[in-house]
Amino acid sequence: MWIEAFVEYLRCEKNSSEHTVVSCRSDLTEFESYMKSLDEQLTWANVDRDVVRQWVVDKMERGYSPSTVCRNLSSLRSFYKFLLRCKYVDKDPTLGIQGPKKPKLLPQFVRETDMDRLLDGNYFPDTLEGLRDKLVVLTFYSTGIRLAELVSLSWLDVDLASGMLKVTGKRNKQRIVPFGEELRRAFEEYRRKLAEQGEPADDACPVFINLSKGCRISRGKVTAIVRLYLSQVTTLKKRSPHVLRHSFATSMLNHNADLQSVKELLGHERITTTEIYTHTTFEELKKMYNQAHPRA
User: N or C: which end of the chain has fewer CB within 10 A?
Assistant: First the structure.
């Protein structure tokens, strides 16, 4: 009951994304099952720090990544803040519990030469599906938008005359993202082909559709498209839409975009989130220096 009240709070008051809502519900349901497996008498009100600490250790021993465990713990912390505010409980057992240290990994990105090879080559079939798939990849790389933001795009959000996307990001925050001539032409050609083949392309219709089902494309389908095409030009282990978002940011900074502008384009709340890309570009510069300088 309390979990569902928290879920409703996330949706209605915090404007959290559906992905966040689903993840939180899953994390909390899992913890509830865990504490009940230890002792049927345990409840949200009487569980203590030892149980929370034991849960964290158990997840690490079962091979969960530090990032996943920290996210699970974050869900639990947020839940208890809600319970305290509503006076459902009088203590927070997550206080003082430290999550496992996450390794500092630099974001992976596809090199510009590889992206040029993919987008300028003959990798995409000359079909409506091929046009859609290329538009998916080009949109990610040209704008840096998130997976959920791309999937939710409708034609009303695409201003072809001005070269602007109206993007709905985390917590339903909207921002405007500009795009260039290449992406504008790709949108136009794809929309024209949709109309020619009798597919809906009115303003209220989704931009990216599942052509076999005639409905808005799923996150899983988009991820599969990106993985398929990136695998043809890069040996990166991770080949996801988020890697294309990283590639966009890295390319912008490599071509002298200022950090504040990249922050606004990506929809980051804090500049510190964007700063990780400066480390990426610096590491790339160091690598090139070590390869090229005779006395490196």
Answer: N
Beta bridge pairs of residue 154: 206
How many other C-beta atoms lie within 10 A of the C-beta of residue 225? Answer: 19
Residue positions annotated with a catalytic role: 146, 170, 242, 245, 268, 277
d(CA 162, CA 165): 9
By the 8 A CB rule, do 209 and 199 touch?
Answer: yes
Tell me, letter by letter, the H, E, C secondary structure of the chain: CHHHHHHHHHHHCCCCCHHHHHHHHHHHHHHHHHHHHHCCCCCCCCCCHHHHHHHHHHHHHCCCCHHHHHHHHHHHHHHHHHHHHCCCCCCCCCCCCCCCCCCCCCCCCCCHHHHHHHHHCCCCCCCHHHHHHHHHHHHHHHHCCCHHHHHCCEHHHEECCCCEEEEECHHHCEEEEECCHHHHHHHHHHHHHHHHCCCCCCCCCECCEECCCCEECCHHHHHHHHHHHHCCCCCCCCCCHHHHHHHHHHHHHHCCCCHHHHHHHHCCCCHHHHCHHHHHHHHHHHHHHHHHCCCC
Segment 123-179, tens digit of pLDDT: 999 999 999 999 999 999 999 999 999 999 999 999 999 999 999 988 788 999 999
Sign of CA dihedral 170, 172, 175, 180: positive
Tens-place pLDDT, residues 48-106: 999 999 999 999 999 999 989 999 999 999 999 999 999 999 999 999 999 898 777 77
Q: At 239, list the tokens.
A: 């080949």
Distance of alpha carbon 94 from alpha carbon 84, whole angstroms: 12
Name beta bridge partners: 141.
none
Q: What is the total residue count of the chain?
A: 296
pTM score over 0.85: no
